[in-house]
Every structure is written in C-alpha cells, then in structure tokens.
Amino acid sequence: MTTGKSAVTPMMAQYLEIKSRYPNALLFYRMGDFYELFFHDAEEAAVALDIALTKRGKHQGDDIPMCGVPFHAAEGYLLTLIRKGFRVAVCEQLESPTEAKRRGAKSVVKRDVVRLVTPGTLTEESLLEARRHNYLASFANVRGETALAWVDISTGAFHVSVIPEVRLGPELARLMPSELIVAEGDDQTLAETADEFGVALSPLGRAAFDSTGGQKRLCDLFSVGTLEAYGNFSRAEVAAMGAVVEYLEITQKGKLPLLHPPQREAQARVLQIDAATRRNLELTHALSGGRSGSLIGVMDRTVTAAGGRLLERRISSPSRKIEVIQSRLEAVSFSYDNSGFSERVRGMLRKVPDLDRALSRLSIDRGGPRDLAAVRNALAQASDLPGSTDGHDLPELLKSAVQDLMGHDDLVDLLDNALVDEPPLLARDGGFIAPGYDEELDEARKLRDEGRAVIAAMQQEYVDLTGIQSLKVKHNNVLGYFVEVTATHADKMLSEPLSDTFKHRQTTANQVRFTTLPLTEMETRILNAGGQALEIEKRLYSALSLEILNKAAEISQTARALAEIDLATALGELARNENWCKPKVDESRALDIKGGRHPVVEQALKSQSGEPFIANDCHLGDDSDIWLLTGPNMAGKSTFLRQNALIALLAQMGSFVPAQSAHIGIVSQLFSRVGASDDLARGRSTFMVEMVETAAILNQADDHALVILDEIGRGTATYDGLSIAWATLEHLHEANKCRALFATHYHELTKLSEKLGRVDNATVSVKEHNGDVIFLHEVRRGAADRSYGVQVAKLAGLPASVVERARVVLDALEKGEREGGSKRDTLIDDLPLFSAAPPMPAAPPAAESRVEKRLADILPDELTPRQALDLIYELKGLSDED
To answer: Which residues does the annotation say bind ATP (predicted)?
Structure first.
C-alpha cells in the first residue's frame, strides 16, 4: 500500500499509520457505529464477507475502496474472516468526538488497535464450539531439544510437553489446535505439517523463544519468583510457554487472560496414537467430517459444555497409568450402580452454565453481565450438589470432586443480591443490578424513571412551606425547572423568611417565577440520572468482576470438579443404556474380549434398520499375540479390527466398554493401517500412503503396542503384495513382538501360523447358497478357503455377463495354479484375457418348481392354522419329490 501523504486527510493519515503496524491483518477501523476497511483490506473483506464494496474519497488521485460492517454485528463477520484464514486487527475509538474537539475543531478522534483476533485467541461464545477446546499451540526448538506448549484462553488450560519433532504431527492430530506459533524461519519447514492438520501457522520473532526471557514472562504472569513450584521444566518447554505468553501480550494488547499454572504432560503417561490411527478410528471426527458418525458422537451424554470438552480430552489422550484408569472406572461404576443418584445429579448439572469460559471473558475485560450471572448460577448449583450425595459412600474421584464444589457461599450470596435474574448481554445496556443493592443507584434510577413524581413531591413541600395552594413547579427550555405563583402572592415570596429560599427569576403579566437551590440541583440530577445510573452500574460491574477474579483459582477448581462429575455420570448412563461392561485393566499383555461390539456401527444399525450387531470374541496374549484374519470383503473384518482397538482405547480412558467382558493389558501405542486413500497433494499414490503408514508402525511399535492392519500389500502386483504382507507379519512377530490383528486376502499367509509360534488363524464365517454368499459376521478360529470376491461383485450389482466371465477366468486360473506353471500358462493363453469378450447371453430363467407353482396359488391371509400346517406337510412332500 502506498503511504504518500499528499492530499491525505488527517483521518486517512491516522488509518495509514495504524495499518502500517499490522500489515498482515485486516484493519477493522471504528467509525461511529461501523468498523470500516479501506484499500486492499476492503477489497479482500468485501469478497470474503460477500458485502458491497464502495469508495470514500481519493488517495493520490485514485478512489479509495471501502467497505464496512456494523459494530454490533461484528462477531459474525469476524468468525467468517477467521474461518477463511484472515487475522483481524480491531481498532477502536479511545475517546469521544466531543473530547477530540476540545483539542481543536479539526482534531481526529484518537484510535488504536485494542485486540488482534486470530484463530487461537477467540473468546466470544458465538465464535467458539462449546464442546471443543480452542487451543493456541507453540513449538520451540532449543539446541536440538523440542517442546510443545498449548493454551485455551477461553478456559485457562495451559499445558506443555517435551516432544521430538517427529512427534509434532501426532500431537497436532491429538490436540487439533487452531493456531501454531513457531519461530521465524521455522514456518517454512513446518508449513506442510501445519497444513496437513488444518492449523494456522503464525511466525514470531526468535527473541520470543528465548528461554531466559520466557522464564521472566512466566514468573511475572503467575507472580512467582521461580517456576519450580509448577515443575522442573526444560529450556525448550520454557521457551515454548514463553512464546505463548508473548503472543498473547501482542494479540490481547496487554490484557492477558486468566491462565492456570502450566501442567507438564509426560508422553509415557498417555496412550500414543498417531494421526493415521486417529483418522481411521474416527475418534472425534468422522471421515466425512463432523462429530456425527464418530466415537465421541456416539458416546457423548454429557450435559455441560465443560463435561463435553473433558470427554474429548479423555478420548484423545487415554491414560497408561493403572491407578488413574482404576479411579475413573470406580467413579463410572458408582454412577452405573446408582441410577437414582446419577439422575438427580445430572438434572442439577443441566442448569450449570460454562463457568470456565465466563471466567476467562471476565479476566480479559471481554465479558458482560451474563458472565457474572453464569458464575452465580454455576456456583449456586455447585453448592447444592453435595446435598445430593448424602448417604452415599462415594469413590475417591467423586469424593474429591464434591469437596471442590464447596466454599462459595459468600460469593453466591453477593452475586445473588447484586444481580437480576436475567441480565442483559452488555454492561452498557444497564439494568443488570438488582433493586435494593445500591442506594445511590436506586436514587439515580428513581430520578430517571420517576422524575415527575420527585418534582411533584417537591411542589407539595413548597406549598406546605409557603401556604400558597396555587404554587406550581413547572419547566421550560429557557429556565428549566422553576416555582411559579400568581402576582398576588409575589410580595409574600419576596419577603423574609421566604426570600432566603426562593430566588426571583422572571416576572410576567400574571405570574412571578422563582428558583431554589435544591430545585436547581434536582434538575441537574434528573437530567444526568440516566447516565449516572449507567456509570454506577458499570462501577458495580467492575467491583463484582474483581470479587470473582480474586477467587479465580477456587472457581476454576470447582469448574473442573463439575466436569469430572458430569463425565462420570454421563459414562454411567451410557453404560446402562447401551449394555456396556466394566473392563479389567492391568499390566498384563492380555486382550481378552468376549462379545465385543463396535459402538458406532451398532448404533447405526439400531437407528437405520433395527438389526442387532453380531458380537465377537477376541483373545490375544499368553501364547497368541497375533490373529491372522481371513474372509471375504463385506464380511466384517475391518469392523472387527476397529472394534477391538476402540474397546482397548475406551478401557484406558476410564470408560465401560461395549462387550460382555473385557480384560485389557495396558496398551502403550495404538496403530492402525486400514482403508485406502491417496494423497495427491503430496504426490503419494494409495499404495505409497499404505507403505508410509506401515513403515511408521514397524519402526515405532513396542512390545506393548496394539496394531491393527487391514489388507497390507493390496495396492501392487499379487506377488509383490504377498511378499510385503509376509515380511510385515514376520517383523511384527519377531522384531516388534506386539499384539496385532492382521486382516488379509492372501490365504498363503495362513501357513505362517505353523512357523510363527504366537500367530493364530481366524476367519469371518460366510455361508454359500445357490452360488450366492451370505455374511454371518461371526469370527472364529481357522482359515478361510477362499475370498468369495466374485460373489461379492455379484452382490454389488455387476452385470451378469461380467460376473459369469469372472467365474470362468477364476476357474481357469485356479486350475492352472493347481496343475503347475506350464499348464497354467497354456490355460491363460486359451482365455482371451486381453481381447474384448463377447457379451454373455442372459441366463435363461430357471424352470418353475412344483413347490413354487403351489405357493403362487396360496393366499396366506385366508388360511386357518390347521390349513397352514397341512400345507407345510404338502410342500415338504413336493420338495422331496423334486
């Protein structure tokens, strides 16, 4: 943008100066009731927001493009711009036009940017998903050591972890941050990783990643002399956290949000799940996008936003610590066994607003009266909840949570007395302080709302004082309020002692007008009462906000407790309604599941067709670490693989599981290679993607990992694919020594069970009838004899001629395989495989049997029970004769 000053108005000069400080953001420049954008910003915003592009004035001889949005509706426009990848600098008026004119008639209203809006710094309720965190992450590299820090400024959550750079992708897949801060220069090398996970990349000066400066920023933020009380952080961790704080200071213009002390997350404490596995298992997002059809979409029975966010964290980061898992399972088990308790508590939790986000908005002065009410209502419900637990011997997790709900009675009483039941959204609207809370406010409101009654009372006071019944208090635009009497009473008013109170103002033909000091003061107060009432309410709002923020740590603890109780009762209700069982979790290598079911597929069947899900057993551990699963397509192999992985994950997050019983030995890593897709943007074919994901598994899986692999090697030639699958299976058995479910169409691999001691064969049962295949969806020990591919093709609707031709070719190939190489080649040569086969004539309809003829004549509704029984015997006889 050209910044020449020739013929530049003072206002435009101000705009250009402010814009020069934010070249990479759209500048929302406040002009009265609108945010206006100029030059290239206006052109980009008009297209992105689908609003009119106009012009205002000229700059260096050219029209200045301009567009604008109403300030009261700005949130919706901000959301659209953020979702389309823009950053927005919000420039507000820092004084009124009246104040500006006091500095000179042509003075420009002072303006400056008060906030830089970016994807990771949103706090407005309308801009956020209630049940999802909105993380801002920072990745730091200090002398080869790397760390990731992440915050959610809308809830105050603050975490950090040492991770190798190779783990950045999986961590981004787990956290799904909106924005990632990196040091300038690193944005080029990390751009592809950020883009893969839809994360906005924000480069920041390398000085922001200095660990010494970061330590000082963090100590200042938390008002401590050292960070040792929060943990023994490495330089990389301090650098990552310091960069987050620096970025927040830049974007929030010094109004730092209320952040919890940083929590260090150790990688060894959570189940490691790579990005491909999260995608394949559809943990928090279905492959089609959104929560519908995902695991969390099926499981979520929480009734608070904080409970929903906690559920997502647990699904994304299952624990590996037995004591943590057991405490969560005990809480869910208590809820499962005590349905009455659970229902009462959930009824109260439904009335709990989002306490974390209300507290965060208040801390950065972006809240309003409804946030005060949200804190009041949430704490009031929290204070009442312990009464619902009387008479119950709570497990430790719930007992601790209930303790954290108490201690807010004084604050609740204060807010209850101060606030109306349903306050307005904005403090500037007024009317949120309850009557009777503040005498000065009540008086100002009385003057504002009942000015006539106040003047009437003063008139009566003056009548009593003077004894003049005809005395009136009146008002006009010249004199304001005045006391008026007829000319006959003038002498009395002008003589002592009344002359000391009443001062002469005006004499007309028939009346004499006076004023009094109290009347003049009352006039001023009445005229200013509306503004005064609003200023008093704003002052009280600030005082109430300060009272809340002074107890922010205790309130945050209560918010976490409410979320914990919500999740425990939600998982208990889920288990009761869906017939899930409590798993046994220990340090063994077991994966012993009886009657396991896929939670998402089961719910889909219920809602769509009402069909029951066919449950299956799985037994890994002891002398069988790997199941080699064969069977046709559509028989349910992929579902079986996924359901067992999900059951292990659910157990370790502390939930009941969809099975009759489950014994889960701790899983350290969960890997999956299922499905087929290409990655054309990075030049990867389907087979290449498959090999990259398989390589990641073989290079990383340890002996406590659980691996599910589906159709390894199918994307290349038969013998290439078979050899890759063979070698992969051997590597899992001999090198990784992990538990695995390995589905394949290569029946040759079933021979490996005789050579590899911990490999067992399993198959999905089918039944063949009159050339068609019927899927039983039952998994049993043993190997499939063939793939039934042609039958599945027929079910899919391939033309009959194609299906029949495929049968002929398959028979020839299988016969050649049995008879040896040279014979096979002869048979292949006899088949016109590389020439167009003539269309096969339609198969003649089969002759109608005597049973079918007899059935055609029957009207079932007209049969008596006895006639129906006789008919069955008759049809049985005809069938035997045929």
So the answer is: 631-638
pLDDT digits (tens, 9 = 90+) for 625-652: 999 998 777 667 889 999 999 999 999 9
Is 316 annotated to bind a ligand? Reply is no
The boundaries of the domain holding residue 862 are: 850-881
Beta-strand ranges (E) seen in 791-863 are none
| Sequence-ordered alpha helix ranges (H) in 467-598 | 490-494, 517-550, 552-578
Per-residue pLDDT reduced to its tens digit, 575-591: 999 999 999 999 999 99
Please indicate, yes or no, if residue 434 is contained in any of the structural domains. Answer: no
Q: Are residues 595 and 697 in the same domain?
A: yes
Residue 631 is assigned to a ligand binding site = yes
Residue 293 is assigned to a ligand binding site: no
Q: Are residues 779 and 632 in the same domain?
A: yes
Nearest to 718 by CA among 634, 817, 796, 627: 817
Q: What is the reported pLDDT for 77?
A: 93
CB atoms within 10 A of CB 116: 18
Give the CATH number, domain containing residue 67. Answer: 3.40.1170.10
Tell me if 340 is assigned to a ligand binding site: no
Whether 779 is in a domain gets the answer yes
> Are 509 and 452 in a shared domain?
yes
pLDDT in tens, 215-253: 999 999 999 989 988 988 999 999 999 999 999 999 998
Q: What is the pTM of this model?
A: 0.83
The domain tally of the chain equals 7
Q: Is 563 annotated as a binding residue?
A: no
| Residue 636 annotated as part of some ligand binding site | yes
Beta bridge mates, 669: 272
**Is residue 865 marked as binding?**
no
Whether residue 418 is annotated as binding a ligand: the answer is: no
